[in-house]
Design goal:
With about 425 residues, this protein is mainly α. The protein is built from 16 helices and 2 strands. Strands 1-2 form a two-stranded antiparallel ribbon. The chain is globular, with a radius of gyration of 23 Å.
């Protein structure tokens, strides 16, 4: 039930005064019977709108779903008829759940903590790529080494600079021969917690992601053959690969390059943000403005998509901002047009500009746009400023060892 209702909230994010086609355009991508129950399965389980809304209300009262979302609009499209409670203008869905929202401490905002998850020390580690010191050491060198690129000028750190937030603070990154790919570079910080990589989710793992930019002609414009040949020409690298991948007859492979970089990236986690300290018990870690912003973030329903340890559900949601077709370019499914993976929000205060095209520089403006387009809510300047203040409290500490440029082995082969 929790999974069903959590996925259902996605259907409401683009709801406006008109809800024709909301299910097909915004819900069916997740409600396909695999990720979440299909429309047919929902209608089979809940025979009436009232029965469905009673289940939703129970979850809100239990604190397992955020209040304030337009659940009634989804119910209307599923079952037809007049909007249910919570959908009419002026009716607040969280009005009947006040008994469950009393603060558990002297901090009146502590009740909102239950909608968030503290950042673990490490993300999940795949069984076929164990995290070892030797592999992380090698991965760090490869991350910083521009010799993986055709021009020997571009490294992973060029576009994902660990000293400035794990990205390059440009609308779109500059690659080989100053080409651009048209999309903003996501941060590599905390990327191990993401379910899929890239804005369109075309890489299911960090290992697959690491291979992409190296070969993309608008980025590093290299090939597996060039990379392996250059690395094998540097004796110290050959030694490091043997240490990182013991027992392999020929460890210097493109697959192992990707595995080493991915292993290093899984250590790029940012603990000790003010918000993390607040979640773990330090009630003074956030300012009053930041706490008010957190409350608005929950009340407006932002946590429906921005949840989990990095505040991303890893799902794809429609956000028609320009002519970029998003997920459709990967799946060729018309239902995926203009859908993009939910951006993670940790360190969002230092990773401007925003959106998949990097077209918005102001965090406050980005908050307003998302509220309007995804939630159908027009925020005041004060509300946007408070939410932005909260989001800036998500800035953690990049490990010093990770952002210290290593001394790379060898000379310049070829």
């Amino acid at each position: 039930m929790k999974r069903l209702l959590a996925a259902l909230t996605i259907s409401l994010l683009s709801a406006t005064a008109s809800f024709a086609g909301v299910w097909e355009t915004n819900c069916s991508g997740c409600h396909n019977g695999t990720v979440a129950p299909s429309k047919e399965q929902l209608l089979k389980k809940f025979h009436t709108k009232q029965e469905f809304m009673a289940a939703v209300r129970k979850m809100v009262q239990a604190g397992k779903m955020p209040p304030g979302l337009r659940y009634g609009m989804a119910a209307r499209e599923l079952f037809g008829g007049a909007p249910s409670f919570g959908a009419k203008k002026g009716v607040k869905f969280h009005s009947f759940s006040s008994a469950t929202t009393k603060a558990s401490s002297a901090d009146p905002y502590a009740k909102y903590k239950k909608f968030f998850t503290p950042l673990p020390a490490l993300p999940p580690i795949p069984a076929d790529n164990a995290l070892t010191p030797a592999k992380v050491k090698l991965g760090k060198m490869l991350y910083y080494d521009p010799r993986l690129s055709r021009s020997k000028l571009i490294s992973c750190n060029t576009c994902h600079n660990l000293a400035i937030g794990g990205d390059d603070n440009l609308p779109t990154s500059r690659g080989d021969h100053w080409r651009t790919g048209g999309r903003n570079a996501p941060t590599t910080l905390n990327s191990g917690f993401l379910r899929v990589q890239f804005w369109d989710g075309r890489a299911p793992t960090l290992e697959a992601q690491a291979k992409g930019p190296i070969q993309a002609h608008v980025e590093m414009n290299s090939t597996p053959e060039i990379v392996v040949r250059r690395l094998k020409a540097i004796p110290e690298y050959v030694k490091l690969f043997k240490e990182a991948f013991p027992g392999e007859k020929d460890p210097v492979t493109f697959d192992n390059v990707a595995k080493a970089i991915a292993a290093f990236e899984r250590t790029l986690n940012t603990p000790n943000s003010p918000f993390q300290r607040y979640l773990l018990g330090d009630e003074n870690a956030l300012t009053k403005e930041q706490k008010e912003g957190m409350a608005l973030f929950v009340k407006f329903g932002c946590t429906a998509c921005h949840n989990g340890p990095v505040l991303s559900d890893g799902q794809f949601h429609k956000f028609k901002w320009n002519n970029d077709l998003g997920r459709y370019r990967v799946t060729k499914n018309p239902a995926d047009k203009y859908k993009f993976r939910t951006a993670q929000l940790l360190n969002v205060g230092v990773t401007a500009p925003y959106f998949h095209d990097g077209s918005v520089n102001s965090l406050e403006e980005a908050v307003k746009i998302m509220a309007q387009k995804e939630l159908g809510k027009k925020l005041t300047d004060e509300q946007a400023e408070k939410i932005a203040a909260f989001l800036r409290s998500l800035t953690g500490e990049v490990p010093l060892e990770a952002r210290t440029v290593p001394q790379l082995p060898g000379n310049n082969p070829e």
